[in-house]
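Archive transcription. Copying these from loose printouts into the bound notebook so they stop getting lost. Printout 1 of 2:
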Amino acid sequence: MNVLQFICPTGLYGAERWILALAKFLNSDYINCQLAVTKESKDQNIEIFERFKFLGLDSHQIQAHGRFDLFMVSKLVTLIRQKSIDIIHTHGYKSDILGVVAAYITGIRSVATPHGFENVRDRKLQIYIKLGGIALRYFDRVVPLSEDLEYEMYKIGINPKKVRLIQNGVDLEEIERERSSHIPSLSANRDEKIIGYIGQMASRKNILDLIKTFDLLYAKHKNIKLLLVGDGPQRDELEKQAKEMDSSSKIHFLGYQNDRLRILKEFDLFCMTSSLEGIPRSVMEAMAMGIPVAAFDIPGIDKLIVDGKTGLVADFGNREKLKECCERLIFNEELSYTISQNGRDHILNHFSSERMAQGYTSLYYQLLDMDNTIMKTSSDIAVNSALT
């Protein structure tokens, strides 16, 4: 079968990495997974396009004239027909709107995976996000990444019969490859503790609270620094606000980085202050890497962190408590080691991309009303071979 992953990318962040992980672990003997991205400006980051091609899979660009070019629908319809696509799988409000219309015109099956809802102030963008929520009602299947996102689907009126939860997963092969590499440390001064964040700089990530928490910690401990990896619409404003902090000289905005895992490996602590998440991939990657995590306790985080066992959490907005969590994990080596090992075991045992891909394989076959006995038999043979 031919499955088209469709996204309007903003960089190489959670949703884009999710697509790459899924495509990597789908069985190419049975599923021809392809990618379509919208190209909306010269400076748009479409690295996912190149990464997908590197996997040996077909990638396609759909040229657009601006961010809200509805003529992209006709181009998407043409691509679907040319490539004999059976299922379109969309990611994000814009691709949901375009994708469900194209699926209706061409008569193919449609799947949407919501990766979380953005809180924005731009009125026009708010309208499109709301339209994206309405579009989800017309998909054949809507597949949230977490139980909390599943509940959100019901709240916006999605038919429960269309909703199927398939939990998020992380590419453990990629993590293990980086863990076993022997590239020299980024910092020769290991007396300085590194607190870090990797991800988009968007409103729902609430990064200003992370910066303010770091500033509280810096008032007591001078041998720390904060590395912020990623880009986004709030970066310029965040840099201005960081310059007003007493700790400004220790706050570093690194921008988008291709080698994020190499940088992640250097962290002594990963800290997240988001207000809204599905199941955050960056936190899963940190835990799988063996990096302790402190975060605000929000839906999605609670599926990863059991407070005091796999990480430490503070009530949302409580920067003083989060500072204490960071302090404990940075300066108590025994606690840090225990929590990092527990966190790593939790991810390895419950959040693999292989398990996620198996769930989508079953879903795709069900949508086309096909018997996936062949897939099950093939999987059984592979397991038996590995055990003998």
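Printout 2 of 2:
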Amino acid sequence: MAMDQQTNSSTKLSVASVPFVFAGGIMILWLSWQLLSMLNFTYPLWYRVLDIHSHIQTYAPQNNNKSGFEETTIQERYRLYYATVTAVNNDGEGLAQIRYRSPTGEFIDTLYTDAEVLHLQDVSNLITKFDYLAYVCVFIVVLYTSRFIGWWGGRPIKPGWRNVHYGFLATMVTLLLIVFIIGPQKVFYWMHEMVFPPDHPWFFYYQDSLMSTSMKAPDLFGALAVQWLMLTLMGYYLWIYGVSYVVKKRIRKSNGF
């Protein structure tokens, strides 16, 4: 009977921990995005690794809408990418006003066409929704954590999140396997069709888009996705074990150890 009660109690704690673990995963995903945004998504690194410079020098002169981008300096391209990241993280403000300059500092043209601005605005709208979801998740994590460490509701309790934690990781691994089985590019295109308005353009040829050219789409997006995922996994482990450590200390203290 005692074993049954203990098992039931553990099961209840595990079930109760589901929102905490999944909200925490989304919170860490969001925090990783914020950190990468501050680091300009390490664009200078990928610029070299993916040889984006040669890509720009090849396709920028062929652009049907804009001219002179191949004349810009590498530092100017870094600046433009950062300006784009900043804009999409701030409701798309200033996207249409991003302009590229010659090596002498003279403005040549706006960076994006109307269609590209529309697409980037759609991306920004999606990020805004992600922000709101993250705020809710942060609230859930703070609420649960404060209960675990005994700030409210009585003594500190050891969360029963081990099985839930493994379930979350298993879900992540399963999704990754599905992506690689279907094909990253197919999944990438399918996601665009699902999340963006059907009458809004999202596919741009290199000859028509400095956005696609300067980002060497979809190669850069794949690299950034892996980078984002790896940072999220590291952050997730640090977070989950950090909370565990604090909770254990609080429990020992409450027990007089």
